[in-house]
Amino acid sequence: MSDATHFERYGEPGFGDYVALLKPRVMVLVVFTAIAGIVAAPVAVHPVIGLAAILFIALGGGASGALNMWWDADIDAVMRRTRGRPIPAGRVQPSEAMALGLVLSAFAVVMLGLATNWIAAGLLAFTIFFYAVVYSMWLKRSTPQNIVIGGAAGAFPPMIGWAVATGGVSAESVMMFLLIFMWTPPHFWALALFMRSDYDDAGVPMLTVTHGRPATRRHVWWYTVALTPVALGLAFTSVGGPIYLAAALVMHGIFLRGAWAIFRRDEVMAEADGYAVEKRVFRDSLAYLFVLFGAIMVQAALHGTVLGAFR
After folding, report:
1. pLDDT tens, 190-219?
2. Cα-flanking dihedrals φ and ψ of residue 12, to 5°?
3. What pTM did the predictor assign?
């Protein structure tokens, strides 16, 4: 479709359409966990540098979202959850989304390198590449392990934040990475349980499609169990402490209880209540990550590092 025909049919795309391409809801989690990485690090960051770093990390995350929407426009048009996005809804052309993603990617990486250091910039560049190419273009459409391996893309922001402050990687930043990495599969599989028809229609080999819902329920439970040592282990690193441990015990207990409830259900039970348990676990899992990374920041304040981090 030509630009002229497109504008005649849909009108000029608005600013909100381009913002939507950046997946702002996902960007909130990216920014929040990156801030936690900066704040928890043992090295002070000037407030101007810290704010600039957060801005460029957010733009990098948004750029990968735009590239993902460009590549996935065909399946987004099929899935109920995504058909209202700017490209399948006809408000933005795919070429515009691709251009926006590429330009913002280059800008974010270069500016983060100039503002902080090239280790942080390199991690940001790898994150964008991993999400846009490794996950979106390869894993998502080829293997039911798409979420397991692809979850690494969303796990890098606290490592990037830590690198902004320290110029490197440490055991603590790797543990924060692992927290998100191990959390991602049960979080998304809970969603897939009540959105399976979308993935069926789009031909995406989500675990619910390739192995069925009973197998997915087992995976939700065992991956949540496997998350336990990571979630609790962070309490015994330099970024943890009693506040974090208390938060982790409560939130992980809720997550385990929800995963066990999912494990014990069958499709008759789930359909009878409209997948109420699965939807609740999905919502609780979102709160889980925000509370735990919020606790890391609170713990940093108690350690006396938060004031130093932005002085």
Report:
1. 999 988 777 877 788 889 889 999 999 999
2. -65, 130
3. 0.90
